[in-house]
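Protein in question quoted in full.
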Amino acid sequence: MDVKACLQITMKIKTGNRNAAAKVYSDFREPFLARIPGALTKQLLVRNEDVQVLHGFDSVKNARAYLDSDMFRDDVFIGLKDLWDVPPDVRIYECIQ
């Protein structure tokens, strides 16, 4: 299980909306790991200034493909979009080991 790519989604979410964002994370963590091709890990990071979700993939190609998946577009995005203060910062990194 080598992570070769990371998808980082950084969101500005008010403190009062963070529980709702954490619920979206919790609701879709297991389905993400079970059904998204190449998905290996998913972590929620909560900081004072923002909330980040880090997704580990087996390839950059699969990380990009997740952003176009039905799960992301129809479930995760819909569940989070009303919680953002500004649009999220989405980045994909290649992991070199």
About this structure: The domain at 5-94 is CATH 3.30.70.100 (Alpha-Beta Plaits).
